[in-house]
């Protein structure tokens, strides 16, 4: 689940020690064969899933600004993401769609996906993640407008039966030119026109 060359952060052994304790508290025997390596595996997995804390999303965009006169809407849709809800530390995952209207600068499309990756690899709530992605683009590219739409399934709701299976939570945030309903509509139509 993590790249071979992943570099793990300080505290990995402590983290594994705590997970061993957690297994006991859950009623398991952490010394049985199948669980022997589990605490370290979980510790590594959790470090990977929260690696976004050590990454600077603003810097990613600042390093990849290109001067360009293009001033039509730029859309990056269907960016897959996986995150952990900060209330239950269970996954929520889905798609992020981003639109912005350049004001002299554009960025690489893969960099937008990278920003999504960084903010999603932290403990999150969907609303804040949506806002953070929008602000990061707004503050670095300084476009005429940005809009971010996130569609996600929350395991904390689905697994506990709080919500119907397959329900999708949609959040959006926008600024600038997207304050106009017509501009938002144009984006929403382009997202859902699959
Ligand atoms: Zn939750």
How is this structure best described in words?
The chain has 194 residues and is an alpha+beta fold. Helices cover 39% and strands 25% of the residues. It contains 7 helices and 7 strands. It has helices at 12-25, 38-49, 57-62, 109-120, 126-141, 155-158, 181-192, and strands at 65-67, 74-85, 91-101, 105-107, 123-124, 145-154, 169-176. The strands form 2 sheets. A 5-stranded mixed sheet has the order 5-2-3-6-7, sandwiched between helices. A hairpin with a 5-residue loop joins strand 2 (74-85) and strand 3 (91-101). Helix 1 packs across helix 2 (38-49) and helix 4 runs antiparallel to helix 5. The relative contact order is 0.14. The model has no long low-confidence stretch (mean pLDDT 94). The site of zinc ion has 6 residues, from loops.
In whole angstroms, the N-to-C terminal distance is 30 Å
Q: Name the helix and strand elements from N-terminus to C-terminus, one letter apiece.
A: HHHEEEEHEHEHEH
Strand order of the largest sheet: 5-2-3-6-7
Supply the number of helical segments: 7
Ligand names = zinc ion
């Amino acid at each position: 689940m993590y790249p071979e060359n992943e570099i793990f952060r300080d505290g990995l052994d402590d983290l594994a020690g705590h997970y061993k304790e957690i297994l006991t508290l859950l009623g398991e025997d952490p010394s049985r064969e199948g669980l022997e390596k589990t605490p370290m595996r979980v510790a590594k997995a959790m470090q990977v899933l929260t690696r976004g804390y050590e990454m600077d999303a603003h810097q990613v965009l600042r390093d990849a600004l290109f001067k360009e006169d293009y001033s039509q809407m730029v859309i990056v849709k269907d960016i897959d993401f996986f995150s952990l809800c900060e209330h239950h530390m269970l996954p929520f995952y889905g798609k992020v769609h981003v639109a912005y209207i350049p004001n002299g600068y554009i960025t690489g499309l893969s960099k937008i996906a990278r920003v999504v990756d960084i903010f999603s690899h932290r403990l999150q709530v969907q609303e804040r993640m949506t806002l953070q992605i929008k602000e990061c683009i707004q503050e670095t590219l300084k476009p005429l407008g940005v809009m971010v739409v996130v569609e996600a399934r929350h395991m904390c709701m689905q697994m506990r039966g709080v919500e119907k299976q397959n329900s999708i939570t949609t959040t959006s945030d926008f600024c600038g030119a997207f304050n106009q309903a017509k501009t938002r509509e144009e984006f929403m139509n382009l997202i859902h026109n699959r």
